[in-house]
Model the fold of this input.
Amino acid sequence: MSQEELQKIKQKNYAEAIRYMEKAKKTLEKAGLDEDHHYNSCRKVRNACKKAHHGVLIALDAYLLLNGMEKPKVSKKVDDYIGQIGKIDKQLSKDLDNLYHTLYMLGCHDGIQSARAVEIGFDEAYEVIDKIKPAQTV
Done:
């Protein structure tokens, strides 16, 4: 792939991943916080974490393409991504495993209501997404 094509992939996927993260943050705002720093709506936390997780997968698809690897064909299972990314960057693979447990398992699946835990998951998501951040965003 040419440098121009790679840059277009970065710009497109980065913008889309950030768009999902922004949607996720808006959904979290609607969940409301109580005085103990817990979200009031488990359903909204689940939806927000699901959107954030999807944004991460979009970034990971681009990351794999940018590194000359195929993205997982049919499955969107994190294990497929972890295996592929582990061939490129072992630390990112470990970070992705932690992100999966924080954002997807605790957030999407369990609907954890701790704002601190969700914040950590979102921070980790942004770190992964920033791996494909283009030099200049459109």
The helical segments are 3-31, 42-66, 78-86, 90-109, 115-129. The chain has a mean pLDDT of 90.
